[in-house]
């Protein structure tokens, strides 16, 4: 399997612009996670899905952030409008079987908002 | 509120020695605990999982202990090598599939 695939790998955008990050989880996995990593706050869980349904979005920082999972093989994380403080590495991850599953991470999307 | 603390941001040891990393938590009752390795510019990679009813797990040169009374996990790398240099993250998971990560400890193994 190719692993979790994220795009874009790097993005530089201007404040106020819309940013869409994309993720293809590992085939057959039933959990999908969006994490954000910064030096200041470490690795934070933003939202996660089980069988395409959002289970917990309590980590989403504010209404500017939204995530969707229209099918088992695709998810998006959207920021609109973007702000400089959104600059971070955004990781998508997937797993199979709750209660002790291994989480497989993508290589991350490096976002810089100027 | 829930809190996960990993010992010192950085740990430097000599090649061949045993590295011991600590993960302490409060206000949490995890069903399991995991350890991940993260290299610069890469996503975390799973290493080991230990469940709440287990005391110790081993995998090659790695050993994890889990003490739910002390609310602590220890992660050991024996016969450390420069290639073990990386950031190591602990993660606590619940039965709803949610995993929360610590901030990580950066290990440097000097030849």
Would you mind describing this structure in some detail?
- The complex is a heterodimer of chains A (114) and B (111).
- Chain A is mostly beta strands.
- Chain A has no helices and eleven strands.
- In chain A, the strands form two sheets. In chain A, strands 2, 4, 5, 6, 9, 10 and 11 form a seven-stranded mixed beta sheet that branches. In chain A, strands 1-3-8-7 form a four-stranded antiparallel beta sheet, with no helix packed on it.
- In chain A, strand 5 and strand 6 form a beta hairpin.
- Chain A is globular.
- Chain B is mostly beta strands.
- Classes of the chains: A mainly beta (114), B mainly beta (111).
Descriptive keywords:
heterodimer, A: 114 residues, mainly beta, 7-stranded mixed sheet, 4-stranded antiparallel sheet, 11 strands, B: mainly beta, 6-stranded mixed sheet, 58% strand
Write a compact overview of the structure shown.
Chain A has 114 residues and is mainly β. Chain A has strands at 5-7, 10-13, 19-24, 31-38, 42-50, 53-56, 65-71, 74-79, 88-95, 104-105, 109-113.
């Amino acid at each position: 399997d190719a692993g979790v695939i994220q795009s874009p790998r790097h993005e530089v955008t201007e404040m106020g612009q819309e940013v869409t990050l994309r993720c293809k989880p590992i085939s057959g996995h039933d959990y999908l996670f969006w994490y954000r990593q910064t030096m200041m706050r470490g690795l934070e869980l933003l939202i996660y899905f089980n069988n395409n349904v959002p289970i917990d979005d309590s980590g989403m920082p504010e209404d500017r952030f939204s995530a969707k999972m229209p099918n088992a093989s695709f998810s998006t994380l959207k920021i609109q409008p973007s702000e400089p403080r959104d600059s971070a590495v955004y990781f998508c991850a997937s797993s199979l079987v709750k209660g002790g599953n291994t989480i497989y991470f993508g290589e991350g999307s490096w976002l810089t908002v100027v | 509120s829930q809190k996960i603390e990993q010992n010192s941001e950085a740990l430097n040891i000599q090649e061949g020695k045993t590295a011991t990393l600590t993960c302490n938590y409060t206000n949490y009752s995890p069903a399991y605990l995991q350890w991940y390795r993260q290299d610069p510019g890469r996503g975390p990679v799973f290493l080991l999982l230990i469940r709440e009813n287990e005391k110790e797990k081993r995998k090659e040169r790695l050993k994890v202990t889990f003490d739910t009374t002390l609310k602590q996990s220890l992660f050991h790398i024996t016969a450390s090598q420069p290639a073990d240099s990386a950031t190591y993250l602990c993660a606590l998971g619940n039965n709803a599939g949610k995993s929360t990560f610590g901030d990580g400890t950066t290990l440097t193994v000097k030849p």
